[in-house]
Design a protein that fits this description.
Blueprint lengths: L1 H22 L5 H21 L5 H24 L5 H20 L1
Helix pairs in contact: 1-2, 1-3, 3-4
Length: 104
């Protein structure tokens, strides 16, 4: 169950990271509120997950999910470059996440 909670926390991290773009410097009320809720929910779920998961592993996986998801959505939503190097780096992060999961 802790892994599912951690995964949800990672997805919420993607949500708030993307939400930051839509707040336009915290000048738009609704995106700002939704982003704030996502930040709090993400950290709370991370806190719940680390009750049973190793802290370093959980934190690295949480940030990895957030990083990969944010980069992918940046490519899709904001037309950021999808170069071979960027995609290769995403693959390395995913490999690191998988390795940490397998050794936890």
């Amino acid at each position: 169950m802790a892994w599912i909670i951690l995964f949800l926390a990672g997805l919420l991290e993607v949500g708030w990271a993307i939400g930051l773009k839509y707040t336009e410097g915290f000048t738009k009320p609704l995106p700002t509120i939704l982003t704030g809720i996502s930040i709090v929910a993400s950290v709370v779920l991370l806190g719940i997950a680390v009750r049973t998961l190793p802290l370093g592993t959980a934190y690295a996986i949480w940030t990895g999910i957030g990083t990969v998801g944010t980069v992918i959505l940046g490519i899709i939503l904001f037309h950021e470059p999808a170069t071979a190097v960027r995609l290769g780096c995403i693959a390395l992060i995913i490999a690191g996440i998988a390795g940490l999961k397998l050794t936890a």
